[in-house]
UniProtKB/TrEMBL annotation, chains A, B, C, D:
Domain Semialdehyde dehydrogenase NAD-binding intervals: 2-134
Protein name per UniProt: N-acetyl-gamma-glutamyl-phosphate reductase
Source taxonomy: Bacteria, Bacillati, Actinomycetota, Actinomycetes, Streptosporangiales
Region forming the signal peptide: none
Chief location of this protein within or outside the cell: cytoplasm
Gene name linked to the record: argC
Pathway terms, separated by semicolons: Amino-acid biosynthesis; L-arginine biosynthesis; N(2)-acetyl-L-ornithine from L-glutamate: step 3/4
Length: 340, 340, 340, 340
C-alpha cells in the first residue's frame, strides 16, 4: 500500500516516515510541505537517510491523489479542504485537531472558525472504539495530551471508581510544539528549565479530554488541565487524578486496571511500586502506566508516560490505520523504547 | 559573624557556601562532612575556588563549637543530637526535616523514629512568621517542595478564596535528591526523561504542606501531592490547585495575590498572561508566581517556580537567618537569576 | 538462532536486546548478570516490555551453553575465561576490550593483567575486514570511540591523503561510561555541563585507534586523543584531523570519501556543507560523516556522529554477526534514527 | 557611574545587566534594543526582576549619550557608527567583533565589509595587556572562543613550550549563538545532540585566535579550529593542543603554567589529575584550566572551561572596564559558579 504524507518536513511527519519505513505493508508515496516544498527531505529529517534525496512537493489534491492512505500533518484548519478532494477509497488520517471535537461550541471556543465535523476517533483503547475504526475511511488522530489522559483514566471511569473533578498536570517534551521558530522554544531557553503555559483551562486539548472521559464515564467530566514544558525533546508524563468513588480500595483499583489492560498490546501497567518515566517509552508506541489510591487525599492518582510523537501522534495514527485496513493492530509498531 | 556548615560536601552545603561567600556579614568557619571528612572541599565543590583548599572536618561538637551560626545540612535524624551540644548563643539552622513537623504521628508515619520537636519554621512569607523568626535561636528550614506550595497557595487560603481539596504536581531538578549514588539519578537515566515517584501521598513533604496550609486556612487542608523528576539539575515548578470558593473571580483572585505579595522582596507575581519557568529563578532566592481561576473546572490554579537549592533550601535558610540576627532580610541574597 | 547475552542488565546489554528483538533471525536465550542475577530484567531495562518478566541468571558456562551466539557485555578481563568454555560451534562476540589489541605491551600499559590475544575485529568497513569476519567464530567488537575515528579517517589514510599526526577530540554521551554509580555521572553533575577526562593519551581506546589507523595507512600513526563527556545520554561526535598530504584538494578529498563509502550501507557521507550531529544517528546503526580540507591550517578534518550504543557497540556487534553467520549484513539493523 | 547597554534584550545584554546589578560602582542607565524597542525588559530577561518594568529604547546617539560607560552588544558591523557619536569621555565597550582584528584582509575574508580598525583588546591576562587597558576609552571584548583558547595556550607559547600547529576543538552552549530564531537552535533539535558547524577554518573566531597566539609566540601560529554545539545553554569546553617543543616535560609544562597563572584572579589551574568541566564556571568569571603533555603523541594538551556569557563575554567586558576605570579588577565579578 502506498502512503502519502502532507506535512513531511515537520516533527509529526518525520515520525510518521520513521514508522512507515519500518512497516512491512507500506511504501512511501508523495511527501508534501508548505514553505519547504522544493527542498530535499534530508534537509529536514536527516535521521531518515533512506529518504534523504526525496524532494518535497506542494500539498495539493494532485500530489496526494492515488494513494491508499494519506496522512495529514498540517496546522489545524487545513485538513477538511484537503480531505474533500480525496474519495472514500482513500483512507485519510488527520493528525491535526480538525475532526476531533463533536461539540461545535467547544471547537469555536478553543480553535475558532468553522467546525469541520468529526471523524472516527483514533484511540483504539477506548471502549468499543476498535469496532468504530474497523473499515473507517477517515480517522481523527487524538491529541497527544488527550491520548495520555484518556489511557490513564479510562479504566477508572469505566469501572465507576472515579468522580468527575479531574486534575491533570502534564509535562511534555518540546517536540509537542512542533518546529515553530518561537523564542521560548530555543534550546537556550528550554534546557535546564521547566515552565507552564496555557494554564487555567486555556489549552485546546482540554475539551477533547472532557469529551473522551465523559463518554467513558457516561456523565459529564470536568478537567483542570495544566500543561508544562520539560527540558526534553520527546515524551509526555501526565499525572491525572480524580476523587475516589466511595469504597474504592487500592486493590479494587489495581484489579480494575489489570482487567481493563490485560489484552492491550501497547498499554503497560507497571509492577506495583514502579512509576512511569518517559524514557521507558522513548520512540515506542507504548504507554507506561501506574495507578494508586491516595487514601490521605481521597483521590485516584494515575501517572502515564508516552512518547508524544509515537503513541501520542504518529504511532497512534498507524495503529488505527492498521485496524481500519484489517491488518494486525501491532504491525510495524515498536514495542521497544530507545534507552538510556 | 562566623558560620559553620555541617554537610559541606553535599548540594545543600555547597549552595550555602555559595551564598555565604557573597554575604557581607559572614565569614566561613568550620566545614564538616561524614565520609568525605579529610578531603579537600575542592574535590566536591569545584565551583567554589576560593575554598578549594579547605579541608573537611568530622561533624563533631568540637568542630562546630564557637560559631555564631551553624547550618546543618545532614540526613534526617541527625540534627537533634548535633544541636543539643550547641547552646542558645549559637543560631542553629536545620536544613533537614527533623524539626518541621508538629505532629508526632505524622513524623512517625513519614519518617519513623523519635520525634525531635519543632523549631521556628523558616518561611518568612507565612502570615506572622517574621515575628516568630526574629530573635529565634533555632530555625527549621522548610522542605523545598513545601516552600513552593506554601508560597503559591497561602495568599489564596489567607483570603478565603480556596477550598481544602488541594492537588499539587511538582517537577523538580535532580539536585533535590542530593548527591546520592542511585541508578535512577544517573545522567544517562534522567537526561531526556521525566518520571514520577512517591505517588499517592507517600512523599514526606506531604504532611508539611498540609500543616502549613491548614495553619493559613484555619481549617484542615488535604493535599494530593505528586512529585516528579525533570531532566534538569535545579528548579521546582509546582502546579497547585484548589477548588475556588464561591464567588471568586479572576480579578478578586489576582487582587488578593497582589495585596499579599506587594511587600515581599522575593516572591514575584508575574504580569498577567506570563507563566513561570524555573529559568527565571535559577540561582536566585526568588519565586516566580502566577495564579488564575479555571472557570471551566472551578479551581484556583497557582504555578510557582523556585530554585530548589536557593529559595528552596540554602537561600531560604539565609533569609531566615538574616531576620533572626536582625540583619536586613535581603542581605547577601541574589535577586537575579542566571539565564539563559 | 538463539542468542545469549552476558551482562544483560547494563547499557550495552540492553541495546543488544533492543536490536535482537527487532532481528528476524534471533530468539533471545539466556540473559545473565553479575550482582543483578535473580532480578527481573524489567527492573533494569523498562524500555523492553516484552522481556520484563525474564529473570537474570548468573553468568556461568552452564547458562551460556547451547546457544548459537553468545554476546559478552562484561567488564574487561572477564571475557576470555567465559569464552574458553564455549566451543567453536558457538559464535562468541566480545563487546569488551579483551580481544582487540594485538600488541601485548599496549594491553599491559593501558589495561594491565594478562593479554588474552586477538579475535577478528568487528569493524566491517575497514579494508578487507568483511573477508576476515566471514565464518569467524569469535568477534572482538571495537570500542565506541575507535569505531568513530576509524570510520572517519580510514578513507583518507587508505587514499594516502593524510599524515600521521592525528588529533581527535570526541564528545560522548554518558551511557558510554555504563551504569556505574560514580558521582561525576550523576544527572545533577552532567546536565548543563561538558567536561574532559583521560586527557593526554591516557584513554584506553588510544592504542586501538592507532592500531587500526596504522594498519590502514601502512605506517605508524600516532593519535592525540581527548575524550569529553557531553550532557546527553547517547551519541559520539568525533572531530578528527590529520595533516593533509601534499597536493590534496577539497575535491580530491571528497572524491576519495565518495569512492570509499559509496557501497557502505551504514556510513553516510553528508551533502557538502552539512555537518554531523548525533541526533542524526540516535538509535540507528548509521554513521553521519563529513570531511573537508582546512586549507588555512593544512589539515584534513573529518567529523563523524554515531550512536555509541548502536553503531558504537551493539549494532556494530550485530552487523559483524550477520556477516559471520552469512546473513545479509543489514538484517535487523535500524537505518533510521529517532529524532527530534 | 552610569552604564548604558545597547542590545539589552539579547543574551549578552542580559548577562551584562546581571553583572552590573551586582557591581557596587554602577547604576543602570539606558537600555536599548532594535526590534524589541518599546517593550518591557521583563519580557526578554525575566531573570532580572529588578529591571522588569524598564522599557527598552531605540539604539540612538541620543539615548546612549550622557553615560560613563556604554556597552555595545550588537550584531557585527553596527558598533563603529554608534561609537562615533560618543566622545572619548565615554568608555565604549564593544562586545561584538568589529574592533578585534588588526588585519583588514582577515576582516574582509571572515566578516566582509569595511574594516573598522582595532580597539584595545579586552583580555587582561595576555602579556602586557593590563597596561594597554589602563585608561583605555575604547575596548574590544574578545570573542568567547578566542578567550578560551588564548587563556589555555598563552602560557605555553609565552614560555616557548609549544609549536605553531595548533588544533582546537571546542564545545559551546547554545547561548553562544544568541537568541536567533533558527531551526537548528530549537530545543527539540539540540537537546540530546552534539553537532559540529563552521568546520575547516570557516569560523570567524579563527583569525582572532591566530592573531592573539601569534603575538604571544612572537611568530605566526596557525589554528585548525572546529566549533561544536553541545546540549547546554552555557559554557565552552575547549580542547587545545600544539606540538611540544623539544625537551618539554610534564613538570616543566606545569611549572610554566603555575608561574604564569599564580597571580591571575580568574584563571584557575586545577590540581593535577583534575580536568575541567563547564559546571565549575557556570555564571562565574573564572576559567578552569588544566594542561598536560601527551608524550605518546608529542603534544601539549590544554583543556579549559569558561562560561561563554560571563568570562567569555560580559564578565570579561566588566573586568576590562574595571581596569580601564582604575577600579579593582575583580570588583563585582563572581568567583563562584552556580552548581550543580
Amino acid at each position: 500500500m502506498r502512503a502519502a504524507i502532507a506535512g513531511a518536513s515537520g516533527y509529526a511527519g518525520g515520525e510518521l516516515l520513521r514508522l512507515l519505513l519500518g512497516h512491512p505493508e507500506f511504501e512511501i508515496g508523495a511527501l508534501t510541505a508548505a514553505s519547504s516544498a522544493g527542498s530535499r527531505l534530508g534537509a529536514h529529517q536527516p535521521h531518515l537517510p533512506q529518504l534523504a534525496d526525496r524532494v518535497l512537493d506542494d500539498t495539493t489534491s494532485a500530489t496526494l491523489a492515488g494513494h491508499d492512505v494519506v496522512f495529514l500533518a498540517l496546522p489545524h484548519g487545513h485538513s477538511a479542504a484537503v480531505a474533500a478532494s480525496l474519495g472514500e477509497e482513500t483512507l485519510v488520517v488527520d493528525c491535526g485537531a480538525d475532526h476531533r471535537l463533536a461539540d461545535p461550541a467547544a471547537w469555536q471556543e478553543f480553535y475558532g472558525g468553522e467546525h469541520a465535523g468529526t471523524w472516527p476517533y483514533g484511540l483504539p483503547e477506548l471502549p468499543g472504539q476498535r469496532e468504530v475504526l474497523r473499515r473507517a475511511t477517515r480517522i481523527a488522530v487524538p491529541g497527544c495530551y488527550p491520548t495520555s489522559v484518556l489511557l490513564a483514566l479510562s479504566p477508572a471511569f469505566a469501572a465507576g471508581l472515579a468522580g468527575h473533578d479531574v486534575v491533570v498536570v502534564a509535562a511534555s517534551g518540546t517536540s509537542g510544539a512542533g518546529r515553530s521558530l518561537k523564542p521560548h522554544l530555543l534550546g537556550s531557553e528550554v534546557m535546564g528549565s521547566a515552565g507552564a503555559y496555557a494554564v487555567g483551562g486555556a489549552h485546546r486539548h482540554t475539551p477533547e479530554m472532557e469529551q473522551g472521559l465523559s463518554a467513558v464515564a457516561g456523565a459529564p467530566v470536568r478537567v483542570s488541565f495544566t500543561p508544562t514544558l520539560a527540558p526534553m525533546s520527546r515524551g509526555i508524563l501526565a499525572t491525572c487524578s480524580a476523587p475516589a468513588a466511595p469504597g474504592v480500595t487500592k486493590e479494587s483499583l489495581r484489579t480494575a486496571y489489570e482487567v481493563a489492560l490485560k489484552s492491550e498490546p501497547f498499554v503497560k501497567l507497571l509492577p506495583e511500586g514502579v512509576w512511569p518515566a518517559t524514557a521507558m517509552t522513548y520512540g515506542a508506541n507504548t504507554a507506561a502506566l501506574q495507578v494508586t489510591l491516595d487514601e490521605r487525599a481521597g483521590r485516584v492518582v494515575a501517572v502515564i508516560a508516552i512518547d508524544n510523537l509515537t503513541k501520542g501522534t504518529a504511532g497512534g495514527a498507524v495503529q488505527s490505520v492498521n485496524i481500519a485496513l484489517g491488518l494486525p493492530e501491532e504491525l510495524g509498531l515498536p514495542l521497544t523504547g530507545v534507552a538510556p
